[in-house]
């Protein structure tokens, strides 16, 4: 049965969205095309009608996952316009966010996988890092600097490390330590400390 262009476009979007979630949950190599397409409600045979390769899908799904994370940061920031950076940090460094593997941060879930991918995937991650730095700069009123890069690195690292331990108390300590450092830096840069 022939699929209309509109339906083909919808199918393609569904595969990209599904891949963005499943890759975050299982890694780029942790799920095969058959299971990925089944997750999108399609057959494996339709994959190559939509994408030239899994590498193409990996880059597109990475872009989608990173964009999804940015939308969540924006929503958190909008919830507290008086202190948007703290709102983002509180959301990001929460146990709830840590538990959201399929919907959580693409950097936490996929950075080590992305490091082993080709230039297309790395370009998506690089663009995402730059966009997050710009967002942190706009939320904090600071210039995009090494200090902001350190904040982003600390946040991503804290969530990553908290996911790697069984001890929930240690996981919370990791998140809280990063949050305290971010909060302390914000007070220092705003002249409060």
Instruction: Give the assembly state of these chains.
Output: single chain
CATH superfamily: Tetracycline Repressor, domain 2
Task: Tell me the helix content.
Answer: over 70%
CATH-derived topology: Tetracycline Repressor, domain 2
The fraction of residues assigned to DSSP E strands is under 5%
Overall strand count: 0
Count of domain modules: 1
CATH class: Mainly Alpha
CATH architecture: Orthogonal Bundle
Estimated structural class: mainly alpha
Task: State the major sheet.
Answer: none
- Roughly what is the average pLDDT, rounded to an integer? 91
- Unreliable residue runs: 186-193
Radius of gyration: 18 Å
Secondary-structure element sequence?
HHHHHHHHHH
| Count of alpha and pi helical runs | 10
- Shape summary: elongated
Structure, explained:
The chain is mainly α. It has a single domain (54-189), classed as Tetracycline Repressor, domain 2. It is built from ten helices and no strands. It has helices at 5-26, 33-39, 47-50, 54-79, 84-92, 95-99, 106-114, 119-140, 146-163, 168-189. Helix 1 (5-26) packs across helix 4 and helix 4 crosses helix 5. It is elongated, with a radius of gyration of 18 Å. The model is unreliable at 186-193 (pLDDT under 50). InterPro entries: Homeodomain-like_sf, HTH_TetR, Tet_transcr_reg_TetR-rel_C_sf.
């Amino acid at each position: 049965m022939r699929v209309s262009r509109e339906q083909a476009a919808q199918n393609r979007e569904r595969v990209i969205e599904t891949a963005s979630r499943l890759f975050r949950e299982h890694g780029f190599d942790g799920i095969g095309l058959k299971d990925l397409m089944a997750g999108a409600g399609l057959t494996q045979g339709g994959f190559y009608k939509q994408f030239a390769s899994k590498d193409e899908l990996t880059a597109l799904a990475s872009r989608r996952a990173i964009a999804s994370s940015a939308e969540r940061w924006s929503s958190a920031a909008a919830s507290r316009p008086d202190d948007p950076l703290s709102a983002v940090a509180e959301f990001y460094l929460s146990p709830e966010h840590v538990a959201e593997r399929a919907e959580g941060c693409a950097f936490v879930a996929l950075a080590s996988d992305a490091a082993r991918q080709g230039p297309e995937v790395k370009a998506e991650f690089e663009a995402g890092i730059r966009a997050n730095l710009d967002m942190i700069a706009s939320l904090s009123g600071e210039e995009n600097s090494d200090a902001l890069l350190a904040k982003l690195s600390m946040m991503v690292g804290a969530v990553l490390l908290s996911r790697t331990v069984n001890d929930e108390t240690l996981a919370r300590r990791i998140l809280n330590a990063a949050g305290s450092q971010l909060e302390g830096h914000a007070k220092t840069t705003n002249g409060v400390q």
